[in-house]
């Protein structure tokens, strides 16, 4: 029997601001266990991890980072049968691979949810009850084109005509190329159509709810089209591996409804979730945007909960211009990449080269070139040159001389003062503005731009060091010694800023750099980060401090892989 949709007596509770002292949950998607991890999964996790680490370094308040595995659905049921194992055994094995991959990549997750866990299943049952009690569900007959790999029904507008392996005509998903099959079932339906206007209002009132902006526009466009009701269960006879619908043993809850509730179960739904929800930022791939930006907010509204504060969307990685696929044999294994390029090297590459607004291309030569140029040569070389005993025999953070580098009111109007040139003043101003620039880019989900700015400043610092040739200065001349100390002081100050700002991206390398500069753990936060205090007439706590132990090369240059060398010889 159809039940009218109950109108909420009050609007869903809004999220608290996420400024200083506010809680925030950052989440990755939970990853489907029909196959092992690849770099697309790792990219999602690294984006969320960098945001989480950056926020903690800012001292912005309690934070959590959740990830996990999505373990139900027809795809898992079929994959287990093909592998000659049971769904629970397959899930245990593949979920463990994801846990290992994320741990190996230094993803600082606080929670790892598995949808097969009892706590999650209890949350799903409660959420279903909230939808049912609110009149958002009804039983109906549903038919359409079902895509098993994507676990969803697709409209005709998202299909194309192709031929299968036997040359027979078939329909496939336009986006993924996966084959679809006509399916007719008696299912529970969710009144998605009733939420078209509330969803539009939510987005128009919250223009930052979905970032980057092109994805926000895409969702608004979807909401201008018809929004048909959504099938939210499957017949139990077809799908046994899933959570049964409460009080109806003939139906299994649709895998996407089950999976989406992980964002609630991780924060203690239905008892303690209000301590965190809805101060949540979801990091998701563009292929699951509709599930997170249309279906999920509508389901939350129907259950009396507010939508998440932000949905941060990224694009995909291709491999030498081709989409990653098992059939092409070009799926990139993150374990192999970390072994070849190191944890920090591969983290840096993905976050430096990954642009959320568009697909990015992976190939080995690019990893080697970027990491060697920016980490090994530019950053590592700068640290090595400025701390070498031949340049800094006392192994200390030397003093800054105001007479060599006098304070100016406007660097754009000076031609240079003391021993400093106009170019030096411009360079120092760039580094001084860097922490705020980086913070703004992190807030805008443009981590790659933050790293671009840091890399530019590192290059400028190398140019500053090279321009003044401190190795040529005569230490026996007091004036020359003052200028030498000032050059090294400025260089070490720059390195301290870069090391601090790079902690969310390359945590191990940043730790080694800061330890070499004798920066204590409590001095590594972003909220108290200052630069060149002496230039601004303040005391510098690092001046005169003995540097930390020399642990050798900061970042070793990468070698081309054996396969890459073979390919180069062929050319």
Automatic annotation (TrEMBL):
SUPFAM superfamilies: Anticodon-binding domain of a subclass of class I aminoacyl-tRNA synthetases, Nucleotidylyl transferase
Subcellular location(s) per record: Mitochondrion matrix
Enzyme class: ligase
Domain (Methionyl-tRNA synthetase anticodon-binding) ranges: 422-520
Reaction equation(s) it catalyzes: tRNA(Met) + L-methionine + ATP = L-methionyl-tRNA(Met) + AMP + diphosphate
One Pfam short name: tRNA-synt_1g
GO term, biological process aspect, one: methionyl-tRNA aminoacylation
Chain intervals with Basic residues compositional bias: 1-13
TM segment ranges: none
Gene3D superfamilies reported for this sequence: 2.170.220.10, HUPs, Isoleucyl-tRNA Synthetase, Domain 1
Keywords carried by this UniProt record: Aminoacyl-tRNA synthetase, ATP-binding, Ligase, Mitochondrion, Nucleotide-binding, Protein biosynthesis, Transit peptide
Keyword ATP-binding found: yes
Residues covered by region (Disordered): 1-20
EC number: 6.1.1.10
Domain of life from the UniProt record: Eukaryota
Any GO MF annotation of the entry: methionine-tRNA ligase activity
Any one GO cellular component localisation term in the record: mitochondrial matrix
Domain Methionyl/Leucyl tRNA synthetase: 25-386
Family recorded in the similarity comment: Belongs to the class-I aminoacyl-tRNA synthetase family.
Protein name as catalogued: Methionine--tRNA ligase, mitochondrial
């Amino acid at each position: 029997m159809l039940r009218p949709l109950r109108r909420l007596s009050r609007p869903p509770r809004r999220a608290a601001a996420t400024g200083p002292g506010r809680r925030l949950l950052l989440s990755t998607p939970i990853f489907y266990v029909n196959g092992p991890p690849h770099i697309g999964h790792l990219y999602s996790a690294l984006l969320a991890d960098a945001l989480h680490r950056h926020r903690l370094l800012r001292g912005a308040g309690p934070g959590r980072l959740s990830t996990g595995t999505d373990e139900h659905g027809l795809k898992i049921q079929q994959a287990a049968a093909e592998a000659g194992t049971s769904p629970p055994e397959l899930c245990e094995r593949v979920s463990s691979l994801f846990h290992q991959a994320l741990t190996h990549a230094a993803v600082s997750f606080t929670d790892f949810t598995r949808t097969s866990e009892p706590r999650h299943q209890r949350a799903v049952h409660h959420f279903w009850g909230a939808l049912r009690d609110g009149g958002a569900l009804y039983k109906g007959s549903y038919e359409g084109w079902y895509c098993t790999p994507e676990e969803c029904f697709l409209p005709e507008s998202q299909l194309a005509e192709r031929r299968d392996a036997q040359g027979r005509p078939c329909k496939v998903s336009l986006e993924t190329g996966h084959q679809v099959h006509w399916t007719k079932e008696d299912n529970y339906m969710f009144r998605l159509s009733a939420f078209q206007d509330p969803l539009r209002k939510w987005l128009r009132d919250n223009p930052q709810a979905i970032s980057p902006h092109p994805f926000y526009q895409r969702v608004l466009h979807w909401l201008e089209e018809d929004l048909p009701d959504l099938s939210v269960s499957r017949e139990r006879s077809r799908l046994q591996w899933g959570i049964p619908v409460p009080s109806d043993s003939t139906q299994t809850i649709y895998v996407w409804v089950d999976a989406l509730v992980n964002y609630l179960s991780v924060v203690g739904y239905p008892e303690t979730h209000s301590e965190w929800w809805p101060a949540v930022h979801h990091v998701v791939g563009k292929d699951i945007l509709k599930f997170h930006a249309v279906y999920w907010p509508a389901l939350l509204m129907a259950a009396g909960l507010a939508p998440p504060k932000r949905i941060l969307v990224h694009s995909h990685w291709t491999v030498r211009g081709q989409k990653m696929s098992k059939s092409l044999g070009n799926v990139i294994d993150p374990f192999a990449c970390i072994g070849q390029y190191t944890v920090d090297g591969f983290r840096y590459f993905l976050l430096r080269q990954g642009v959320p607004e568009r697909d990015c291309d992976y190939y080995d030569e690019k990893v080697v070139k970027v990491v060697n140029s920016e980490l090994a040569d530019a950053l590592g070389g700068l640290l090595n040159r400025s701390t070498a005993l031949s340049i800094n025999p006392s192994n200390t953070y030397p003093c800054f001389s105001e007479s060599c580098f006098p304070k100016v009111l406007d660097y754009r109007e000076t031609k240079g003062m003391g021993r400093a040139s106009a170019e030096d003043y411009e360079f120092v101003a760039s580094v001084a503005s860097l922490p705020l620039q980086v913070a703004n880019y992190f807030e805008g989900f443009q981590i790659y731009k933050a790293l671009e700015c840091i890399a530019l400043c590192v290059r400028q610092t190398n140019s500053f060091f090279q321009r003044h040739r401190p190795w040529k200065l005569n230490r026996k001349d007091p004036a020359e010694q003052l200028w030498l100390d000032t050059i090294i002081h400025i260089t070490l100050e720059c390195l301290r800023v870069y090391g601090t700002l790079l902690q969310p991206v390359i945590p191990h390398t940043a730790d080694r750099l800061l330890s070499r500069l004798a920066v204590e753990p409590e001095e590594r936060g972003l909220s108290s980060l200052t630069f060149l205090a002496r230039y601004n007439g303040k005391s510098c706590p690092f001046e005169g401090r003995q540097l930390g132990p020399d642990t050798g090369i900061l970042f070793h240059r990468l070698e081309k892989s054996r396969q890459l060398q073979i390919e180069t010889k062929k050319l």
